[in-house]
């Protein structure tokens, strides 16, 4: 059963939220000298980017080799 639309939306949301967290949130937290929060924003930003990439690769492998 293909659910490519859901996967594409999920991938885009993970990647966009990760990039926004890495670019905007980290900069704002750096400016305000909030080191703990900056580390968490960086961690969750990279986690979102990695999850988006893993879902993308998993979807590509599934669609290429299974279907």
Automatic annotation (TrEMBL):
What InterPro entries does the database record attribute to this sequence? CLC_0170-like
Q: Which UniProt keywords apply?
A: Membrane, Transmembrane, Transmembrane helix
Positions of transmembrane segments: 6-28, 40-62
The name this protein carries in UniProt is: CLC_0170 family protein
What is the originating organism of this protein? Halalkalibacter alkalisediminis
């Amino acid at each position: 059963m293909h659910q490519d639309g859901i996967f594409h939306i999920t991938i885009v949301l993970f990647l966009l939220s990760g990039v926004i967290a890495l670019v905007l949130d980290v900069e704002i937290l750096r400016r305000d000298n909030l080191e703990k929060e900056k580390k968490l924003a960086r961690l969750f930003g990279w986690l979102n980017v990695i999850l988006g990439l893993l879902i993308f690769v998993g979807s590509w492998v599934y669609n290429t080799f299974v279907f």
